[in-house]
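Board notes (copied after class):
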Amino acid sequence: MDYFKKILGFAKPYKRYAYLNIFFNILYALFGTLSFVALVPVLKVIFGDKKEVYTKPVYEGLGSLKDYTQDYLNYELSTLITTYGSFKVLMLMVGIIISLFLLKNISNYMAMYYITFLRNGVLKDIRNAMYNKVVALPLSFYSEKRKGDTISKISADVEEVRNSLLSVLEMIVREPLTILFSLIAMFVFSMKLTLFVFVFIPISGFLISKIGKSLKKKSVKVQQEQGIFLSILEETMSGLRIIKAFNAEDAFQKKFEASNERYYRFSNSVLNRQNLASPMSELMGIIVIGILLVYGGYLVFIDDSMEASFFIGYITLAYNILTPAKGISKASYSLKRGNGAAERILELLNTENPIKDAPDAIVKNSFEKEIRINNISFKYENDYVLKNFSATIPKGKTIALVGQSGSGKSTIANLITRFYDIDEGSIEIDNINIKQITKHSLHSLMGVVSQDSILFNDTVANNIKLGKPDATDDEILEAAKIANAYEFIKDLPNGFDTNVGDAGGKLSGGQKQRLSIARAVLKNPPIMILDEATSALDTESEKLVQKALENMMLNRTSVVIAHRLSTIQNADQIIVMQKGEIVEQGTHNELLNLKGTYRKLVEMQSFE
């Protein structure tokens, strides 16, 4: 229930719909009870089961409530039948019953109408909050968690909350009030018979509680397993080319089927326990109805303390309790299932973001002097991938980072952009620690072209203007020309309005990379980070892009991470890295003259 209460915190903006829902649910329960109570005079008229009473009875207190009710009803019926006749009175009673049922169903519709806004509003806000958290969490979070599990929380777990927890909102007032109003009417009809019903409710609740005790635990297993097979599905779709190339279809099929089989078993266990709720409560109800029939028959035929029409009305009221009782027992199971889903949702929402703005963080809109990296060290897990790294990047200069794979080059880019926080040392922009700059303004100062050309399933134009949504068509065109992308864009079926497909699947590697460069050009930031930006290009595409990169880096501060050394010969400073440490630094010619690590790297590659 704790998680359910926290999820209900999302309902605060929609509380007016909750109040309207409660109001109409009260009317629903009231009219529903009255519609069954109204059957009693109909039965009296049809069967002639009434005493001739022409003197209005006097109420003498709670102890005589049942006798007063019977006598008053007989008095009213006797008077009406004498005046209008039995058939007209019967028509009147039937009209009243139909009106009561009409009002009951109108109230039900209005209650459902208003709860819809509350339910869907809560779901909308939960999804928005979860998506905001997904975007806000650092990259390190996703290197430790399965993507499919996060997707499962946003999709399947939110749906479970809708089907379980929020469905309870529909009955949380209506069903208990229906039972309450029915019990009040039954108490008026017969205090003795009603005692049996009070015995039934706690026994039923106890049995249902015992059955559903482990339901939450099993439900969490279902949702966790769903996250696993969604992860397998996501990996399969992302790596389908490799799976097919290595004939690994059967291995992934078995992996998916094993997870799906576990999901199947867990789901069966949960649903079979949940399915016990309805028959269990109905069986308990029928047992009580049977006892009521026997005892009530005694009161009517032997004790003669209860009229037959009142007894039949009483039984209909008792049976009227069964449906909401079944609903409440189902709701208790739903709460346990939904509580598991709510726990997983809140686990994500409550995840602490280790990379956040300092309370006194400033907004920095310009870059004036230099980037200074002061003796930083960093580790992803246990081993340091960067050790005592220092560098200064003056405004307008280009610094290049080279070295073998795993030497820590890309980590520098991740730390400057503050995708990760450093363990030791500091990074400063214009003598301000980047931890004292808001993340939004820090990222506004930078443009990134990564090794992986990340495009989105949208048009060419929308991919280019990602960092500048209000860009004009002329600005987009100019950026595409600078990136040497216009030459292939103009040949696409719809030019800039052509959809690039999922992850840019309709374009070649070189075309995707040039769009990524155009995106960075259009943003026009003072600091540019190129993380092996030409590694995905063939020789011809590299020549097309290299000139564009050089033009883009003019009068701009650039950090270039390069595998192809031909792309960084004109850098103002080249830093050679090995196992997270600087082994050499200088210009291209200075490093060649050292005849050290850089010279060896150059000799391994052919310059044109």
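Comment from the instructor: The chain has a mean pLDDT of 79. Residues 365-445+527-541+557-608 form a domain with the Rossmann fold fold (CATH 3.40.50.300).
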